[in-house]
Specification:
Helix content is about 80%, strand content about 0%. By secondary structure, it is mainly α.
């Protein structure tokens, strides 16, 4: 097994692969959003039951990271990554073959569990090979690529819906997994040498979690990230029904609206990485929460006063851009000072993002598939809680002394 030697500059192929590994989450959730109403009808499911296919994937993405992160700290990044990508491709095939919504929910859970491995290892391996400003820029690029996948996902899904059904979309995801497996085999070299791996088994893992949860700044950054993503995933869960059912957009029209919002996510994610590095991580985070709050309040107003389509799209755009602004600084604040347990720290961050999202997503449908008000309430509450955490924990927490990074970026 070839290892990345200390001090080696990160090559473009490895950097690109680490960013591509983050597409598991966005593609798994976004590609089939344009055909979610059709899936609901074909399987004879209720809206809430169909939305559970999204929730199951989110839960898998959350729980899988908590398992994969500590394992990668102990056994290295490469072996768990191969296993996760292979399992993801197989689970995607199972999704395509599902005969009932209940079977699909279970297959989506497995797909999320497997897909979580790529996400957590991309962040942890990035911490292995980057430090300082390069680390913040890397997390900014992860946000941008996540936005790009969110743009490509619904657009490709909408176009594929012209020639295939929702089952064909999951076959496409399986093909993506196979391609990434081949690229990983060709490009990925171990980033965590044996001498830097965690030892001590479960006792060491428990101790690492205890250290992380006693770090005020880490806990605050994780909670803010989770709450911001709860608002984002509520949007992902509810927008397809609201825009297509409530406002009459076609799957292609929904893809275009969603793509425009995701393009904003990309741009503001890039801006956040640069601003957090050059100006202030905490200032960028505060700005992101302010923009998110504006979007959430716009959705609440739309639900209360039946505002037109333009108000919904503008509010969703502001919400997506605001969450993008929060992503690089929260990731950097959470992971930068724990290089010796980067996989475990990344797993907690992922658990919060996808776990909170999994809770928020089905709540949006409780008031009716096409109702905007539940979406407005969920997003406002999520961002309001994030603002409270920012004031109580992150704003007052002192930055811990960072250990010397073993690998130069």
């Amino acid at each position: 097994m070839t290892e990345t030697p200390p001090g080696r500059r990160v090559g473009p192929a490895l950097a690109l692969l680490l960013m591509l590994l983050t597409v598991f989450g966005p593609l798994s959730m976004d590609l089939y959003l344009p055909v979610l109403p059709a899936l609901t009808a074909e399987l004879g499911a209720t809206t809430s039951a169909a939305q559970l296919t999204l929730t199951a994937c989110l839960v898998g993405l959350a729980v899988g990271q908590v398992v994969a992160g500590p394992l990668s700290d102990r056994f290295g990044r490469r072996v768990p990554l191969f296993a996760g990508i292979a399992a993801y491709a197989a689970a995607s095939v199972l999704c395509a073959l599902s005969p009932t919504v209940e079977t699909l929910v279970l297959a989506r859970l497995v797909q999320g569990l497997a897909g979580a491995v790529g996400i957590v290892i991309a962040q942890a391996a990035g911490r292995d090979v980057y430090e300082g400003g390069a680390l913040i820029r890397f997390y900014g690029r992860l946000t941008v690529l996540g936005g790009l996948a969110a743009v490509v996902g619904p657009v490709v899904g909408g176009q594929l819906a012209r020639v295939t059904d929702w089952r064909g979309l999951f076959v496409f995801l399986a093909a993506v997994g196979v391609v990434l497996l081949a690229v990983t085999a060709a490009v990925f070299r171990e980033t965590l040498p044996a001498e830097r791996r965690a030892r001590g088994g479960m006792r060491r893992t428990v101790r690492d979690f205890r250290v992380l949860l006693s770090d005020r700044l880490f806990v605050g950054a994780v909670l803010i990230s989770g709450l911001a993503h709860a608002a984002l995933f509520a949007y992902l869960s509810g927008a397809t029904y609201i825009l297509q059912g409530g406002y009459g957009l076609s799957p292609q029209g929904y893809s275009a609206a969603f793509g425009a919002n995701s393009a904003g996510f990309m741009v503001f994610g890039y801006i956040a990485g640069r601003t957090a590095e050059r100006v202030s991580e905490r200032g960028t985070l505060a700005a992101g929460l302010a923009v998110s709050a504006a979007g959430a309040l716009g959705l609440l107003a739309t639900g209360l006063f039946a505002l037109p389509l333009a108000a919904v799209v503008a509010s969703l755009f502001a919400l997506a851009c605001g969450v993008a602004l929060t992503a690089p600084p929260t990731t950097s604040l959470a992971l930068a000072h724990h290089p010796e347990r980067a996989g475990t720290a990344s797993s907690v961050l992922g658990l919060a993002r996808f776990g909170f999202g999994g809770v928020a997503a089905p709540v949006v449908g409780l008031g009716g598939a096409q109702a905007v008000l539940p979406l407005g309430v969920v997003t406002v509450v999520s961002i309001a809680l994030a603002v409270c955490v920012q004031a109580a924990l992150v704003g007052r927490a002192s930055r811990p002394q960072a250990p010397a990074a073993p690998v130069a970026g």
